[in-house]
């Protein structure tokens, strides 16, 4: 099971990297970031597909999308200069709480 979690977090890293490259691609007008988008999204989906063979899809996808969303939002704030509003920060905390809650209920079965 540890292997699945490692692959899942590598997949999340690839998805976050692909999304960051999407921003850097400037509407697919810059070739290197554009190629990187497809490469990293492909790796992310491949990793997720490997993980869901051994892990509940509800848990794997919730962690993948929740952690990815929260990470991309933090990158947007810290690197791309997006505004960090109270609503945005509270919403990110709710995402994290939701992912932790799903994992907690899954392990308690």
UniProtKB/TrEMBL annotation:
Subcellular location(s) of the protein: Cell membrane
Instruction: List UniProt keywords, sorted A-Z.
Output: Cell membrane, Membrane, Transmembrane, Transmembrane helix, Transport
Annotated Pfam families: Multi_Drug_Res
Query: Which residues are listed as membrane-spanning?
Result: 31-52, 59-80, 86-105
One GO cellular component assignment for this chain's record is:
plasma membrane
Under the heading SUPFAM superfamilies, the entry gives:
Multidrug resistance efflux transporter EmrE (SSF103481)
User: What does the record give under GO molecular function?
Assistant: transmembrane transporter activity
Keyword presence, Transmembrane helix: yes
Q: Which domain of life is it from?
A: Bacteria
Q: Topology with regard to the membrane?
A: Multi-pass membrane protein
Q: Which GO terms describe its biological process?
A: xenobiotic detoxification by transmembrane export across the plasma membrane
Its family remark reads: Belongs to the drug/metabolite transporter (DMT) superfamily. Small multidrug resistance (SMR) (TC 2.A.7.1) family.
Q: What is this protein called?
A: Quaternary ammonium compound-resistance protein QacC, putative
- What is the scientific name of the source organism? Nitratidesulfovibrio vulgaris (strain ATCC 29579 / DSM 644 / CCUG 34227 / NCIMB 8303 / VKM B-1760 / Hildenborough) (Desulfovibrio vulgaris)
Q: State the organism's lineage.
A: Bacteria, Pseudomonadati, Thermodesulfobacteriota, Desulfovibrionia, Desulfovibrionales
